[in-house]
Specification:
The protein has about 190 residues and is mostly helical. About 75% of the residues lie in helices and about 0% in strands. Helix 1 runs antiparallel to helix 8 and helix 8 packs antiparallel against helix 9. It comes from Stercorarius parasiticus.
Length: about 190
């Protein structure tokens, strides 16, 4: 029943993908990252209804003024910062715990290859985290969610097809492994 389980997560991703265009961007993102004051006020009205949001807008303007001189750090600079070590260790613990979820068993591979698949899963998750943290400021969360969910939906369709054909073509099992890696990267970049 792996195919049903994988299809269920794809269905949820598709539902979220369909409703995503109807949500406005985050007001702090619009003001602090993009510098769009009018868009920020419009998003506040869309999210909270009609009203006077000058207090919240002023707070965001103060935050923008405070962070104006703050340097935005890249991934390597963040990793060198000792204050992020507790969060980093928590993230690594979560990534390592995914190794026990059985994701590598979906491809029906030989037992001798599964440790390498598990290692590939961990590397895929690490790549997606580094890649996402590098591009999130450039594109914003909305585009990453859109792209992530679209890729996840496409990959799940291809994964389902490869699992159905894996009994006829042995090489399709390896395609399933590659698709699992790509799914994890798309998940890390998007949702």
């Amino acid at each position: 029943m792996w195919n049903v389980l994988l299809s269920f997560s794809g269905l949820l991703a598709l539902i979220q993908l369909l409703f995503l265009p109807f949500f406005p961007e985050s007001p702090p993102f619009l003001l602090l990252q993009k510098g769009d004051k009018a868009g920020c006020l419009k998003a506040m009205k869309e999210l909270w209804g009609e009203g006077n949001y000058h207090t919240e807008f002023d707070d965001l303007m103060k935050e923008k003024a405070v962070t104006k001189g703050t340097k935005i750090m890249n991934v390597l600079e963040v990793l060198k910062e000792p204050s992020v070590y507790p969060q980093l260790s928590t993230m690594l613990l979560l990534l390592l715990s995914l190794q026990f979820c059985g994701l590598s068993a979906t491809a029906s591979l030989q037992e001798s290859i599964i440790p390498y698949v598990s290692l590939g899963v961990a590397i895929s998750e690490l790549v997606s985290i580094i890649f996402c943290s590098s591009i999130i400021d450039r594109f914003g969360r909305r585009i990453l969610l859109w792209g992530g969910y679209l890729l996840m939906a496409l990959i799940l369709v291809l994964l389902e097809t490869s699992l159905l054909l894996s009994d006829q073509f042995l090489w399709m099992r390896y395609c399933s492994v590659v698709l699992i890696f790509l799914f994890l990267i798309a998940y890390g970049i998007g949702p």
